[in-house]
Design a protein that fits this description.
alpha/beta, three-stranded antiparallel sheet, 16 helices, 44% helix
């Protein structure tokens, strides 16, 4: 049977951030144990249906997974090992908020098998942190990195955000410089997206927050990121992600390669054996789902062949190594150049794309205009209809 990855959603937060539209809740911390038990029930049901699959990566996301205590995390890991065949070298990542870390819990996470910690730092400027509703300060974020390292975490990643209200290229450089001085193995530098319905989106529409950086400022931030990460020995391996050699996030690569994964927990999505399905995003509905002897999850369309081919390109081209053209041909019966002959030829001639053995990838210049590349592919698909 094909190896899989597992995502486990932990929906608890101390406070919702102003930009967040994820399925997460403040004010439900008293229900952590009942939720852990519900996820364990779901795990058993899924293992009974799909079989005892070999698991290559595990990712605890949220929400704020570090709001779980060590015993609760260990309970989830014990259940996972009982239900699935966890690879000896599995990458097991836990997301965390610097404002929620406790040394005794970090020790317990390590003991349970977590070997990669991803901290949502977002900024190392206290004014910006306050503006976006984070619960930690810059000093607490730095302290969290030191505490995690003392607990035994060697594989440490920091999430940072650019394009925040009031953020300048100088402020971004200062945050990145301070983050890289911590000698972490991985950084993710995500551009802010104003999600509809979030407080920050409303503030931006009403003009009640500081102005968002313009395109020139964002371009300067991108240039700063490229220069400084390279100087710190972190190579760009995906549009927004940089890592030391061998420290790329293996779990996220599963998504970008469109490989199978099983999502557990509230609002979690799955792509298993060619079928896609999702759990309810409503707390009551999810808890009722896991109480049922045979859970009935919401089925999602697996997409037409055309849609799956475009998705494979869209996700794969995010990575600097690009799309596995040989696998693409195995799965769809033709190499990408046969599906998009005009677009791919034009982009290759324009220096935006190149073939590297069995992989098709964007050049650095192509990465800078990736959205335009995808629009070209969509247009050629539409013209075939």
């Amino acid at each position: 049977m094909e190896e899989i990855s597992i995502y486990i959603h932990i929906p608890f937060c101390v406070k919702k951030c102003a930009y967040c539209d994820f399925a997460s809740f403040a004010g439900k911390l008293s229900q952590k144990q009942s939720y852990v038990e519900a996820v364990c029930r779901e795990m058993r049901a899924q293992a009974a249906f799909f079989g005892r699959r070999r698991v290559r990566t595990v990712f605890f996301g949220g929400g704020t997974p570090t709001l779980l205590d060590g015993r609760q995390l260990a309970q989830l890991m014990d259940e996972l090992r009982a239900c699935f065949d966890l690879a000896p070298d599995a990458e097991i990542t836990m997301e965390g908020n610097p404002g929620t870390l406790m040394r005794e819990n970090l020790d317990a996470y390590c003991a349970a098998g977590v070997n990669r910690l991803s901290l949502g730092v977002q900024s190392l400027d206290d004014g910006l942190l306050e503006a976006i509703g984070r619960i930690h300060t810059a000093a607490e974020a730095v302290q969290a990195v030191h505490m995690a390292r003392e607990a035994g975490f060697e594989n440490l990643s920091l999430d940072l955000m650019l394009g925040l209200p009031g953020q300048t290229p100088t402020l971004w450089r200062e945050t990145l410089e301070r983050a890289l001085s911590l000698d972490v193995t991985h950084v993710s530098c995500y551009a802010l997206i104003l999600e509809e319905g979030t407080p920050l989106s409303a503030q931006a529409a009403e003009g009640t927050c500081a102005p968002l950086p313009d395109e020139d400022a964002l371009a300067q931030m991108d240039a700063i990121t490229a220069r400084m990460t390279r100087g710190a020995g972190l190579a760009r391996y995906e549009v927004s992600n940089y890592a030391k050699p061998g420290r790329e996030c293996r779990h996220n690569i599963v998504y970008w390669e469109c490989l199978p994964y099983l999502g557990l927990g509230l609002a979690a999505h799955s792509d298993m054996d060619g079928k896609r399905f999702a759990n309810p995003a409503c707390w009551t509905d999810y808890m009722a789902l896991t109480d049922a002897p045979c859970p009935a999850r919401r089925q999602e369309g697996s997409g037409t062949r055309e849609e799956r081919m475009f998705e494979r390109m869209m996700m794969g081209l995010r990575m600097t190594r690009g799309v596995d053209a040989a696998r693409f041909a195995r799965d769809f019966g033709a190499e990408p150049e046969k599906i998009w002959p005009r677009s791919l030829l034009r982009m290759a001639q324009g220096g935006l794309m190149e073939r590297d053995g069995k992989r098709l990838r964007l050049t650095p210049r192509g990465m800078d205009v990736m959205n335009g590349v995808l629009v070209e592919l969509l247009r050629e698909r539409e013209n075939r209809r």
